[in-house]
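Milestone M4 deliverable, item 7.
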Amino acid sequence: MTAAPTGNQQMTTRTWALLALLGLIWGGSFFFARVAVAHVPPFTLVFLRLGLAALALHIYIRGRFGIYPALAGRWREFLLLGLINNAIPHAFIFLGQTQVGAGLAAILNATTPVWTVIIANMATEDEKLSAGKIGGCLLGLAGTVVLIGPSAIAGLFGASNSVPLWALLLPVLAAVSYGLAATYGKRFRGLAPPVTAAGQLTASSLIMLPVACLVDTPWALPVPPIEAILAILGLALVSTAYGYILFFRIMGEVGATNTSLVTLLVPPSAILLGYLFLGETLQPADVGGMALIAAGLVVLDGRVLRRKHAA
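Output delivered:
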């Protein structure tokens, strides 16, 4: 994810509505993935999501913003960004969602800002940990332990009805990959955001094409049912292509800090959709873990604490 203009722009009713829409769209990506991955192998699903989204963004851009010179001149950087911001995390999430519900996967992936702060502290000179950031990271990590701990303990005792530990760890590893991408993405500040989005999606599509062909042999797969096809289109065109356009639009209006609040809205959206359409429910430990992660994100954001201190 690339950097964007920062500032103290105020949130209006309209921008709150756009942010809620983005949270619903990105929460919907976990719902769509849960439906599609039941019929399409994960690597093929990743390629379809990225490839269709890249095509849609190229049609949207229509050669503007100097996209083709940027792609030609920085293709190596786009390949790396596409690998750590699209190919690896999407593959991990979809593989995990063969065993994990949409809501739980979204909660685990909501630790992305925690890993971003930790990685930025190690890799940069201008984003070091403060007391507030340390507290937020500890809360987020505690929530992750609460979510993963029961399955890890059950696995040690050979329980057969527990969620496999590897399936819970994959969305967390995807969040770590997103954290790496957020730090690396700073070098794309000089490019128009739609160009960065289209460039990374194009590169990651090229990465995933041979992987899907070698692992899944998609030409030998049966045609998926209509609900899976609609879920794939929802993933690619709504949650990815339109999601990126909306994300950058909100950042342009109210800044990166305000836009980052969407992280708090994605898990509830995924949980609601999973409950309404997939019959998914959360266990008490899942709710507790989500509460800890949400508290950690609020502390990392810092505004609530600053307002309390000012008052």
